[in-house]
Amino acid sequence: MTALFNYKLKGTDGLARTGVISTPRGEIRTPAFMPVGTAATVKAMMPESVAATGADILLGNTYHLMLRPGAERVANLGGLHRFMNWQKPILTDSGGFQVMSLAGLRKLTEAGVTFRSHIDGSKHELTPERSMEIQRLLGSDIVMCFDECPALPASDKAVAESMQLSMRWAARSKEAFGDRPGHALFGIMQGGVAPELREESAAALTGIGFDGYAVGGLAVGEGQEAMFGVLDYAPGFLPEDKPRYLMGVGKPDDIVGAVKRGIDMMDCVLPSRSGRTGQAWTRRGQVNIKNARHQDDPRPLDEACSCPACRNYSRAYLHHVFRSQEMISGMLLTWHNLHYYQEIMAGMRAAIAARQFAAWEAAFHALRAEGDIEPV
Ligand SMILES: [Zn+2]
Hints:
- The protein is an alpha/beta fold.
- It has two domains: 6-268, Alpha-Beta Barrel (TIM Barrel); 275-370, no CATH class.
- The chain has 15 helices and 16 strands.
- The strands form four sheets. The chain has an eight-stranded parallel beta sheet.
- The longest helix is centred in the C-terminal third of the chain and has 27 residues, at 327-353.
- The radius of gyration is 21 Å and the shape is globular.
- The mean pLDDT is 96.
- The structure holds zinc ion.
- Zinc ion is lined by residues 301-302, 305, 307, 309-310, 336, 339.
- Residues 301-302, 305, 307, 309-310, 336, 339 line the site of zinc ion.
- Residues 248-254 are annotated as: RNA binding.
- Belongs to the queuine tRNA-ribosyltransferase family.
- InterPro entries: ArchSynthase1/Queuine_TRR (IPR050076), TGT (IPR004803), TGT-like_sf (IPR036511), tRNA_ribo_trans-like (IPR002616).
């Protein structure tokens, strides 16, 4: 019998894993990259286009959606999938991280966080119970525990206390989530860069029992080396038979390094945000389409890419529409970036299944080291 939500590990190569998460809304092939649809849209993309890039799941932000248009309103309109016309799985964050990074006048207590909206200054409260309620109203397929992520740098004591608070909130999140067949609840490991705190956090979470586990508190400005330092051991504290999610990562080489260390899922605004600022990510690294070297270049951004931006348009055109501030600029570059990210994920899934990950990774780095094609 197949459970309504389950993860099946299909292959490993070193610590890298490939598998499939089955949900009532479809399968999520892992390693998976989730585009970010902050305000019920992946900016500059139609949902059909997001799906065409190969995305199996996208991420929605509880903090933004609770403030505008409001979780109850989305529920009355049929839930987030119907509201934004995306029928595949959706993961929502708990709101905790963005309260800490965006909201004004925060007050943190054992109960939760009160804060003022960055939009209109109105007062709101988020608790583990309210976060679970909002994510249920949105209709999220994968719900994240409400947690606290301390601003870095922080003392060991502050990191430990914050982690222990997050573990108490994890237990309350699980209690409030209840029994919802077909929907999953993920716990979030905290503990900063201290192995003993990471282990304590993982033990607390696995004691409660979740459908998947996130490695939290990374990608907050600590740098790639420190992040990989934690990822060298932290995933090993988590159960092998559940998906592992690294939140807010990252650049292409961050993603490859995380998968190499046993991560199954990631999300990041980078490919879509870069697409709106003239930055393209290609197999040869980052390309700044604003640069004058592109203005007479009839070649595609990446001749090997099958996305619409590369198939139908020249670098000269992409340069022109960016300089002219035409909307199609953000649309084409976002499409390309998301397509490229999904190509990386598909490449890694195939390489892990074939136990060729090391060769794939070497080729990935070698082409990036060569850099962009010579100017015309
Ligand atoms: Zn492309």
